Amino acid sequence: MTFLTYTMFLCLVCMAFSCQESMDLELDLLPRPLIIEYPETRLKNMTEELTMQCTSWRVAVESNNLNPWKTIPMECADYIEEYMSGQAYNFDLETVSKEARVYAKSLELGDDGMDVWIFDIDETLLSNLPYYSDHGFGLEVFDCVQFDRWVVEGEATVIESSLKLYEEVSWLGFQIILLTGRSEDKRNVTVTNLINAGYQNWDKLILRGDDDQGKSAIEFKSEKRKEIIEEGYRIIGNSGDQWSDLMGTSVASRSFKLSNPMYHIP
After folding, report:
1. What start and end residues bound the annotated signal peptide (predicted)?
2. C-alpha span between 260 and 124 (Å, rounded)
């Protein structure tokens, strides 16, 4: 290799290294995405805080301390789904059922057969979880048309803890009256659904008639309880998943509220 050739080779190598350094410098100057990595403990604390907030919201629902609401909070969607689909919901239902059975067995009923236990139907005797699992467990605004389509399918499932209570109070000698916000035109499918779920031998099934349309649940059920009392019955117990099933006028001697954080009926 001649001296001239060697010199040219060195020049080319130097130019190549100079270009690479320039490119590296330009890349270093380019804007880079901001990546924030939270420590694992902080992520855990954030999740725990949200769980506590959603638990607090659910407790406020069950204790009737919230103003009327239409949907569950968006940020609590996963929490409510996990609660309704998991063991916690069933434990809560079983606790209410157990306390109601203890109360019922502690009473001495009259000999006239006029002691009554009232049951609501939806989310009290029958579960509509298959429907609500397709509608965000309360994340969507309630659609009565879609829900009625589900009702006529007659596929609501039994709430086992409520069936235990139902059978207990029936065996003890209570008259059982079912008081529901469902419309009168759903009577046949409701009866069939209840029987298929294991409920039998109720004394009355009261649904909304034409004159009851447009009334709030608390107004409708208060009126019907008043009529029951006027017939000479004594309302000893009442089970429902909504406060509007239990409150108002002509209330039971003792009422039992089942958990339901998916929807609110005034």
Report:
1. 1-18
2. 9
Tokens at 117, concatenated: 């236990």
Read off the pTM.
0.83
* Domain carrying residue 99: 73-257
Let me know if residue 252 belongs to a domain: yes
Question: Residue written as tokens 């959603």?
Answer: 54
The whole-number pLDDT of residue 32 equals: 54
Q: How long, in residues, is the chain?
A: 266
In a domain, 62, yes or no: no
Q: From CA 49, how far away is CA 113, in angstroms rounded?
A: 52
What CATH code is carried by the domain that includes residue 229? 3.40.50.1000
Question: What would the pLDDT profile of 199-237 be if each residue is shown by its tens digit?
Answer: 999 999 999 999 999 999 999 999 999 999 999 999 999
Q: Is 264 contained in some domain?
A: no
Q: How far apart are CA 208 and CA 47, in angstroms?
A: 44
Q: Is the model's pLDDT at 2 over the cut of 60?
A: no
Closest CA to 132 of 84, 89, 88, 83: 84
Decide if 45 is inside a domain: no
Listed in sequence order, the residues at least 6 apart from 244 whose beta carbon sits closer than 8 Å to its beta carbon are 216, 217, 218, 221, 265, 266
CB 254 within 8 A of CB 237: yes
d(CA 155, CA 260): 19
User: What pLDDT is stored for residue 187 in this prediction?
Assistant: 98
Number of structural domains the chain divides into: 1
DSSP 8-state secondary structure symbol assigned to residue 86:
S
